[in-house]
Amino acid sequence: MKRIKKIIYTMIALFIGTIALIVIGGFLFLHFSPEFGGKASEEQRLAYSKSDHFKKGKFVNYGDINMDLSGRDMLKAIGGMLKTIPHSVPDQNIETLKIDSLDIIEYGPKTRLVWFGHSTFLLQISNKIILVDPMLGTVPAPHPMLGTKRFSDELPIAIEKIPFIDAVFFTHDHYDHLDYGSVQKLKNKVKTFYTPLGVGAHLEAWGVAKENIVELDWWEEVSFEELTFRCTPAQHFSGRGISDRAQTLWSSWIIQSPTENLFFSGDSGYAPHFKEIGERYGPFDLALLECGQYNELWPTVHMFPEQTAMAGVDVNAKMIMPIHWGAFKLSHHTWTDPVERVSRKARELGIGIITPRIGEQIELDSMVISEPNWWQQ
């Protein structure tokens, strides 16, 4: 009997010890891992308070739209992510088309883009090299065990081989858009980083020089030689840790040359800001629009595919390209549902749509793609 009690006490002690180690490890990780980024100084926060979108110490959406999930909906969301969902990831590795550094360096003055999957793309415009939301890591999470792996084993080009970059844009600080490992590998070959308010604090914490960071509020713009960069609204939220929700701003971006006008939605629910952007700055030759990771539990945070096509009409785009899909599982739908549904709605609305393969080189003066329905193969 004594032996049985001893075994039970030992098991209880081991259980308590294991829980304690997990709690301590979690605490240390949350407080000391560089993945979580930095925090704005009091001086910076004072400057943010002048923004129309900063209230009571937090950034807010138009109309103060509530982004919070109820406790019940949170449990549903977690349960959905833990549940096996048929076809939520591809049956096999998605092969990517390749581009090399010499091709990037020697490319001429025409505008072209290369999609890396999800919301990352490389843009060459007016002889400039630009990266938008360069999440080039394997898992969109602060630790590999906390997320799902990228659908493709390889990127169109290894991050180390990307040549000098004139500008990098970030839309917000979520892990599937702002990646610590990618910034570490890119930071010494980027001229200027452009972010919405507050996101620069993360970059500074990761070793990017302050003078190489430009933070903008919604509707602000800057010139970059013959290019114009405009920071425009989105309906979303931000945060990388437990206590930093809405401490940085989220945005969409406009990149305009003397001859072309591009819109990049970032992450956003469907809302009136799209029409306002279109009225102010449209028409757009191409609008790269979020289309993926939607759910009825968070309808204000991400657009459903039909809304993506409607947003293209609202911003007055000649052509749309669905992004935020094809790389990661961050919701409960099948991995091809976004592109299939948005393609149908685009045809219904009579708006052009382009769906290139990951790594395919798209020239904006033709926008010809090799395999329009490549995901079906």
Automatic annotation (TrEMBL):
- List keywords of the entry alphabetically: Membrane, Transmembrane, Transmembrane helix
Which species is listed as the source?
A: Cyclobacterium amurskyense
Annotated Metallo-beta-lactamase domain ranges read 130-325
Q: Which GO terms describe its molecular function?
A: N-acylphosphatidylethanolamine-specific phospholipase D activity; zinc ion binding
Which stretches are transmembrane? 7-32
Q: Name one GO cellular component term.
A: cytoplasm
* Pfam family, any one: Lactamase_B_2
Q: What lineage, starting at the top, does this entry show?
A: Bacteria, Pseudomonadati, Bacteroidota, Cytophagia, Cytophagales
Gene3D superfamilies, per this entry? Answer: Ribonuclease Z/Hydroxyacylglutathione hydrolase-like (3.60.15.10)
Under InterPro entries, the record lists: Metallo-B-lactamas (IPR001279), NAPE-PLD (IPR024884), RibonucZ/Hydroxyglut_hydro (IPR036866)
- Protein name per its UniProtKB record: Outer membrane protein romA
